[in-house]
Structure formats: structure tokens, C-alpha cells
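INPUT
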Amino acid sequence: MTNGWIDIKNTDMMMIMGGNPAENHPCGFKWAIEAKRDRNAKLIVVDPRFTRTASTADLFLQIRAGTDIAFLGGLINYALENNRIAKEYLINYTNAPFLIQEGFKLPEDGLYSGFDEATKTYDKATWNYQPGGEVSGKVAEGDPLAAAAPPTLPPNVAYDLMLQHPRCVLQLLKKHYSRYTPEVVERITGIPRAQFLKAADLFTSVRKDGDLKKVATIIYAVGWTQHTFGTQIIRTAAMLQLLMGNIGRTGGGVNALRGHSNIQGATDMAGIFDNLPGYLKVPVPADSDLAAYLKRITPTSSKPGPWDSFNYWSNTPKFAVSFLKAMYGDAATKQNDFAFHYLPKIDRNYSWVEIWDNMYRGSIKGMLAFGMNGVMIGPDQQKNIDALKKADWLVVGEIYPDETSEFWRAPGITADEMKKINTTVYRLPCAGFAEKDGSMTNSARWLQWKNAAVPPPGEARLDQDIVAQIFLRVRDLYRKEGGKFPDPILNLTWPYIDPEHPALSDLAKEINGKAVADITDPATKQTIRAGQQLPGFAFLRDDGSTSCGNWIYSGCWTEAGPQLARRGTEDPSGLGIYPNWAWSWPANRRVLYNRASCDPAGKPWDPDRRQIWWDEDSHKWIGNDVPDFKPDSNPKDHMGPFIMNPEGVGRIFGPLAAFADGPFPEYYEPIESPIANPLHPNQSSNPVVKKFNTPMDKYGTIEQGFTVVCTTYRLTEHYHYWTKNNPMNVQLIPEPFIEIPVELADEMGIRGAQKIKVTSARGTYIAKAFVTRRIKPMTIDGKKVYQIGLPIHQGFRGIQEDAEKDARTPANLLTPTVYDPNAYTPEFKGFLVKVEKA
Amino acid sequence: METSRRDFLKVATFGGAATTVFGFDLRPAYAQLRELKIARATETRSTCPYCSVSCGVIIYTLGDKAKNVTPQVIHVEGDPDHPINRGTLCPKGASLEQDILNDRRLLRPQVRRPGATDWQDISWDDALNETARWVKMTRDDTFVAKDAQGHTVNRCEGIAWTGGCTDTNEFNYLVVKTMRSLGVCYLENQARV
Amino acid sequence: MSQATLEIRRISGHAGSVPGAGLRREFEVCKLIDTTTCIGCKACEVACLEWNGLTFSETTFNNSYQTMPETQWNYWNLIKFNEHERDDGTLQLLMRKDQCMHCEEPGCLAACPADGAIVQYVNGIVDFQQDHCIGCGYCMTGCPFNIPKFSPTARKVFKCTLCVDRVTQGLEPACIKSCPTGCLHFGTKPEMKALAETRAAQLRQESGFAHAGVYDPAGIAGTHVIYVLHDATNPEAYGGLPNDPRIPWTVKLWKTPLKWIGNLAIVAGLVGVVGHYLRFGPKLPPEEEERP
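OUTPUT
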């Protein structure tokens, strides 16, 4: 979330799409209801089904699953056509005036310039800004530099403050989305033109006559991410919000709900292959030493000459070196590049779907799965089970018997077949949430400490103890027996009082970071003594005098104590900022990019909802929130509010390697789709998406009889694959079902609660039919198309499953192995099936 | 109309007499006493482990943390101080008591040997030692120090780690520390999917 | 403050006065349910089951998110789901939390023959006292909302207590506390009524629900659970909320005129007995008894 849960109450307009917060985040959704109740804010819900969120909406539109870019592109077109944009914001805070190089081509035929058919990738050299200065003559300044080498952004960007140049970002954007007319939107999404226009008018009404006082928010979840163009859907929303001047503002933003208690924290902490903690990029083989690595990952600013860009990522070396110090302590010295080569170098995709594919192909021999039910999570369960059969060993840490630890006795595997499965499986009983302390980060970026209430039951152990105990045993083996490159294992810092039971509070302090030697802040003259906790990331150094496990979390546990455990309930501004409750990264900021909540002169766009503002007297940015900005940057210097971008401004155009599949989002059909893309039938789906080619990887077509669009989702009564073990939740929804339109049921001669069978190219799912008027048949590109939906909560181990009260067919028997080329998230929504009587 | 104590007594007496005369049940019709079950329980502030709203919850346990008590969860309720949920909970959060007190919980380490058709119990020591042995063996077998171009890569290609959605930040950090040091590249989490 | 000292206003099956009546001041409590902001999440159902320690029910899926047709003796709080198409063709998913309405004139209490099995406190809560309940089930016929349910195992009748144990300790009921959207609200009756009317006016003026209104039925002198409905002219659409609930005439007839006729008959009998005694004296045994 750019903003936060409570901040939703400050909005005037909400669009919820690709998310169903009333069901999946009920306690956060209260703030949407609050906005309706207290401000008469309007709520637009766009979803393949009339959900429980939709039941509270002012306007509901039923969309075909996976066509969100067409809808949002249509909104961009509408906003531009009807002048419902924030022009001053656009010129000053986005790259709308920037000029793009000659040779850049828009994807009228479905392909941007630079596509290589053989590798299915783009050469992105033309996706770049043109170097130079102002071109319209409005402010003649800046010296034309020699063209920078293509892979980097030019330091002095050419721009047009009149936004008229045919190659300026705004004009390209206009041209690109002029194709997304209401008629095209209707053909693709199935939303009738009149309804689309009603929604477009309502949503953009906050910018009627260019007034910037009102604000709109966009709220989404995995309904947007789980597509082969998921990142680009979210980007389209972000672009729309930039266009309308809604980012950085109280009650605005693009707000990812996120589905689990700490996947925000897991992402921040880099529990994913392509990052190191704090969004540092992982090293690649070509990073021959630390200097080369830091040069590659540290951006240099790229902006119009007269403007200023903070380019906060220019501090990357401080973050990276401090991380290496936290990892390897005294073994990380200037002489050995701070043990840079202890880190593995990665040159290909090691993401979730690839794990299972590579294990299926035999290259992964062992897996540790802690609190992660891999057989149920991720597409194509059968492929995952067959992959595990080929592994040598599997260690599962869990609190309940799960499908992953019992893959070897999944339904359909006979005793004879079991005897041929040679995988050794350990199942270790872990601690539940109430038995552990530690912090979790919510989607509003709040780190909150929790306390343990009871000890783990039976012989169950704390997860951190188990990992520590495994690691220390491995280290002992290397110490005694030697082995391949033992240095990083032997030199990993392990300063925990009881090594086999590392205290999470000690780990939290290590994450926050401390001074290794005495350091003095040049600005404030504040000195931090060696061994003291750092007050925040501004104190980090790249010379080895600080250590910090995750720079964005620096400030969470200072000398003043655990900031993440604070419980201050005061909210002086009344905006729901609660600055003294827990701790929010970065630097306890609650709304990101909040400099953009003010006009270029530093005055809030809306004086009634002031996040921060420029104080002429103290020559500082002050306010209700912590400024997400250089605190003493005078508005006259025109520093861009988007300090994490080298441009200093928001990216309407995503230059160079920012995205794998294009600098503007283009509409592509899902991998399995009932029609050819009306925009470019010959390039129907995302050109850079990789299809897998083991015998397990099958993709269905309408010609094979898979004519129904299917989507998957959660119910409010259950939590993922967890509460099927909880009798309370099981009685709320005791068995799986498939939501189908009344018309489809009539056609099939099916009544509600009768068993039906859904088949995709990969597998079959059996459950009772939920015949409903909440999903209506759609007209897609002139064809009648049915959509159905199924909740994902049941598997083959659970209260009802063990009693054999359902078919024990998990939903991911159906979903395809294919993922988004930017975020590598699988496409769980909008695949093709057929529906039959069971 | 004001009723004096004297009047009240009169009325009560008359009422009592009347009921006596009419021969009805004379038991006093008082409400049954119901005590608040959490009145003296221990409160522990925690965070709901389910979605990303991160509602504050209060876990009520039996006993006052005295030495001779084994705490048992008796109730879970929303934390009214928490700025986001303000004491509210959804049906998942409201059922957390049943997640903590659940007879399906795993209580002992188990192993399923190659070709076996069932679990068998294993001691913690054996499970951890065997796991450590597997990790070392697999790492040594699949470690790549340099790639085809001669670049240092120092990675272990044969082990994958998949982490869960409820892992704390500190646990995730411990995983990054240990797994990256082992050279693990297949490091993924619920955050991806 | 213990509940035993709560002031009682009405007692079932109880003749004469209410012990301790009129001793203490007490405000009337009220639960406000705004169906227009209910998201059908069932948090209130779970909070009710958890707080009251009710046992788990065997349920089945029957073409609805609602997995049982009505409240049960061990399931006091049930959201009723109804797909409803409006005149303009737009769809509504109407969700209404169904539970005891805590009527100002409770039909259950009127129908109950067991002394003290049902009491109404001055704060408006109608509470069943299972140790006085004789399991006759008359309360079930007396209730216009089909709420009290008979437990075949306990052989008693149960229903929502409005968490009287919490309320007497100064806490809100469990369902109220859990409700994520605040569609449930708790306070005094006048305040909840005002809040409900304000919300209904907002729905009429801002959200296009011309018939939005408050459900606080007069036929039973109002309730201590009131609803805001998108369409107050059609409460039946919300899972059969009665348009004009009243205490069944059979209960009224039986409990008022018939009861007093019965009482008069008893008094007449007593008077006759006394008169007979005064006039004829005690009946003495025959002086000579036959001995076998």
C-alpha cells in the first residue's frame, strides 16, 4: 500500500478491482465503509463476480476475468479525452513531459520496438528518454549532452512542459490508449458501453474541471497480480492515479491489500530469490567484485536539467555493505570486498514455478518447506506432486498435517505406488502464532511486535530454533569434515546468547543495525558509539562502520527500544496516521511519496487533509506525517517527490528494463482465452510469457471444448488452506462449491447443490454447484461466454477431507503453469474449463 | 408517582400475600448469576496470523502467570486499542481460539522413509541430524563455484527453501542468513504466489 | 455489579409483583444492525459461538453462503443471505443478521408458563433462565421471529442472551465487538434509534435508496435490536423479517383473559371452600368406624 488501511476513510472515491476486501480483509474494509458513511464517498467495484464487497458498492460492473488492462486503459483514455486529469501534478511530478527516443514504437500490432522472436524477449534500447533539455522553448535551459549509452538513463532528459511534442510521454500515452475506446472496452471486458461510461464518469469526477481538492483511491489484491500481465495491470492503475494526481495524497494511492499476515515482511526481508533484504538486487555472475555489483545496482539521476532529483537509491552502497557486515561481521572486511563472494550469484529465474519445474526435471534434490504448503500453493498440483516424488528429501515444518508432507499418499496413489516413491520426508511440529513472539509487517508497512501467550504443544518447537538447530549441525559437519566452500557457513555471524535458541528480539536488533565503530552524523553532529543501535538508515555507511540486516527496517529497534512494539493510540491529525503506534517503514512514514500531497509551492492540494507541507519559517517540510522527502529541500529547487526514482518523478512511461513487456501496459489475453485479442489477433497473449514444456504442462483451447472462463478465489469464512483444520470455520462453509450462473445451470439441467465436474487441460475438480445470479453470462467480442468461479480452500487433508465428506480435489489441479514475466506470479485467474454433470 | 419505602413494603407484602393466596410457585424469580469468563484471565497482546490487515488480538489464558499454572487459552478477542481493527475481528480472527486449541496439531517429529506407506516417529535429534546430513550432502553434490564463463557464482543448485506467509520478519531474516550462506538460490515464499 | 442485582421488569409465569421492581435507574440498551453495511462475513456468528462456548454443528452446503436455514439452540446468531433483484435490474445481496430481537413486549415471555424461566431486565434484555425452564416450548410459539430453539439433549430452550454476562460487566455483546464494518452498533435505545434514522436519511439522500428506513416494529412496542434496511417497505426480502410482528393471538388469549378467568375460578373455589367451612364447619370423621 502506498497509503494505509485507516487512510481509506479520508477518500472521496474508491475503485476496488482485482480484490474482494469485504471477504478477505473485513477489518480493513471497515475504513471503506467509514468513508461511505462519514464522507459520502462513492465505491465502484469491478469484479468477475458480484462479491460481498460488491454488495456495498454504489456501482458494480461485472468484468471478464483478466481483462483489467482493457478497462483501466479505457479509463485513461476517458480521463484524457474529457480533461479529467491533474495537469499541474502531471507536468511537475511525473515524466509526462519527458521525450522518448526516436525509434520507439507503440504496440499497434501487439509488439513494442525491439522484440526478438527467437528469444521472446525485448531489446529495450529504444524504451528510453531522449537526452537534451527543454524543447518547446518555454524554459530554455540545460545543455545538450552527448547521447548516453543505451542501457542507462540519460542524466539530462529532453522535455516539453507544454506536453505537445509528439514524442513526449503524454502524447505517446494519448496515442497508445486512444485505441481503448468504450466500444473496444465492451468487446474485450464484456462491460456494456453505457455502464463503462457511467463508471468512468463517476471515477474521474474527482477531477472535474481540473480541481485537485478531491482524491480517489484504487484498491486491489491478487485478482490483479495472478495473471501473465499482472504487474502491468497494477501499473495501469498507478498511471491512472498519477494522471489524476492521486498518488502521495491522503485518501489516495494505489493500495495492494496483500493476502497474508507477513508476505509484506517476507518481501521486504527478501524471502524471494531475486532480492536481498530491503529490495537490494541479488548479485549476478558478471558482478566480478563488490564495486562492479554496486555500480550496476546504484542508479544515477536522470532528469530535466533545471530540476532536482534526490535519487535516494544513490545510497545503495551504504545499504549493501551494511547488510554484508550484518551477515559476516568481522569476516567482512574492506580487503575481501566485505565477503561479497559469500553471496550466491544468480543468472536465471529461480522463482516459485521454476522450483517445481526444475524439481520435476530432477535438478533440485531436497526442499525445506516451513509453513508453506507447496503442493496446494502454486499451479498444477499434479506436477508438484510428481516433482516431489523425484526429490531425495523433503523437510516440512508445520502445525497441521498438510498436503505437502503427505504428497506420497495423495488421493489416487496406491500402496504399491507409494513403495516406489523414494523421497525421505521429515515432518517437524512447529509453533503456532500464539506461541511465538516477533514482528510481522502488514500491507500498510507497519511492523508490529507480538508476544507469545502459551508454549508450543507437545514436542513442537519454535521455528527459529529448528532452523538454527539445523544450520548449526550443518556448520558442525563442515567444521569437522570440510566440504565445498565452507567459508560463508563458518563465518556467518551468530551472536545469539543461546545459539540453538536465537531470540527474535536479538534478530530484530540485528535487522535494525548498529554502529560497528563510533560514527558521527555530519549534519547533526550526533555520535553513535560502537555497539549502539542505529536511529535509522540515514546513519548507514559504506565503509564497514555500520551493520544493518535490512536498511528499510532501520529505526525499528533503536537505542530507545523496540519502536515496533509501540502502542500509542493518539491521532492528533484525525487522519488516522497514529504516528506512535508500532513503526512503519521507511522511517515511520505512513503515506509514501507524501511530498506529492502538496502543490509545487509546498501547499497541500487540500488544506483539510494535510499530510505534510513546506514551512517557510523553519525552511523545512513538516506535518502530520514524516516527510517522504529531503526535509530541507526548498520547493523552489523543484526536487521531484518520487525520491526512489532516478527521475525524481512518477513514471507514466516505464523506461528501459523497468518492465519486461513494455513501457506502457498493453492489453493481452490470458494464456487460455475464449477469444483472440481484438486489438491484435495475431499477438493475442503476452509475447514474453514463457510456456513450460514438460509432459505435465498442458494449455487448453476453446477448440478442445474448454469454453468457460474460470477464476479462483477465497471466501471470507476460510483462510487459505489453514482453516480447513478449524471446526469453527468448517461449519461456516463445510464443503467446496463451484459458483455458476443460473443460465448455465439451466442449460445443463443442474440445480443448486448438485455435484458438478469442472475440467481443465490439466485436471478435474468436483464439487457442488452454487447456482447464482451473482455471475451473469457475458457477451465477449460478440460471443456468449460463461464465467464460473471456485474457492480454493479445500485439499486432501482437513477435517472434512479426512472424513471423506468432499471429493478431495484441490482447486490447483486445474490451474496452468505459467506466470507473469515481471513478478513471476502464476496465472490463477481467467483460465479455460468445461463444466459437466458429475 | 413516588413510592416510599413504606408503600413499597406494603405493596410487597400484599403482592406476597396475593401470590400466597393464589397458590403460585414461591421461589424468588431472580436472574441466574452469570460470571464474565475472562474476568481474571491473563491478557497477551498478539497479532492475528491470517490476512495482511494485522488486527491486534488479545489472547486470554487461564491463570495469572503464577508458577504453578500451565496457561491454557480460554478466549481470543480483538484488541480495542489497535488503530486498524479497533477490537473487531473477522470470522477467521474470531475463531483463533480453535486454531490454538486444536486436536489436529502436530505434536511429534515424524519421518516417512523411502517406500514407506506410513509415518513413523523420530526423535528430534535424529530428525535434525539426518536433515543436516542431507543438506550437506546435497550442497556438496550440487555446489557450483564458477560458471561456464569463469565467473564466481558460489551457488547451491540442489536445495530449495519455501517459506510461509506467517513467518515473522526475524524468522525470514534468519532464513536469508542461513540459506544464502549455504548458497541457496531457490529461495521463495508465499509472497510470490 | 453482578447480574443478580440487575433490575428485572418482567418475569414469566409469575403472578403479582416483580421483586425489587423500581429500585434502580437503568438505561435501555439497543443493538443497531445496519444491513446496508453488512458484508455477511459471519464474524458475529463466530464471536457468538466462541464467547458462549457453543458446540459445533454439522452443516451442509445448500446453494447459499448460509449453511443452515435458521438459528438453532446452539447457534443463536445467523446471517440470512438473499439474492434480490431490484426493479431496475440491478442485483443486491441482502444479508441480515438474525437473532433474538429482545422485544419490548416479548412474546416468548408472555407465553412461558414457568416462573422465572424468562425474564426481561429494565435495560431491555430478554434472558432465558434455563434452570427454571421446563422445556415446554411455549415460548417458541410465542415468538414472532422464530428465535427460541429447543435442545433435545438439555431438554431446555435456548437463545441469544444479548451477552448479558458481558453487558452487566460493562462490555458490549460479543457480536457487536467483532463486527468488522461497524454495521453492528451498541448503545442506548434513544441513541441507536437516532443513529439509525440518520443513516436511513443518508441512504435516501445520498445512495439512492428511496425507501430506506428503520425497523423497530410497533406491534411489539419496539425491539432492543433494530435494523436499518435499504427498503423498509419490504422487510420480508431480508430472509423473512416479518412486516408487522405481533404476539400470536393464541398466546394473548391464553395468557390474559383465559388466565384471569382461571385465576378467578381458583379464587371462587377458595371462597367457596372458606364459605363452606364457615357455614358447615370442619368435616369430621364418622364417629363409628367399621373395623374389619
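end of record. The CA atoms of residues 32 and 109 of chain C lie 22 Å apart.
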